[in-house]
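One such given next:

>
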Amino acid sequence: MEGECCTSTSTRNAENKRKSREQHHHQQQGKPYRGIRMRKWGKWVAEIREPNKRSRIWLGSYTTPIAAARAYDTAVFYLRGPSARLNFPELIFQDGDLRDMSAASIRKKATEVGARVDALEVALHASESESNSNSNSNSARLSEKPDLNKYPNPESSDEDQ
């Protein structure tokens, strides 16, 4: 009987750990990248804790989560080196040796990268939405049904379109 009690307790502990991992996974689905969070009004912010300190380095506020994640990646790379866990390990740009850098210089590099990525992402989304609105207006014009009881107007011929 004693063996059964211990087995059921260990089984319960394993099940609780599994449930805890599942809950953690579901919480992470709302936060797409490491080191970032979303403000109530929709901006994405990035910050990182300094090693062996309680203070944090503010990395900025961005329009897109990718820009905030890239800023975080830059900072964590300079703080922890090549072994750091990155959101985009294939995109890190190493521009020299990893020497001890101040929090201010890490913040400056991270915000430069984040701002550059944010500008590119916003421009990309703007061009996508512009092309979508153009295709929607073209398809709306094509989907209009002609009045078959009306004589064609030579000014609105197919050659003009």
Notes: The mean pLDDT is 76.
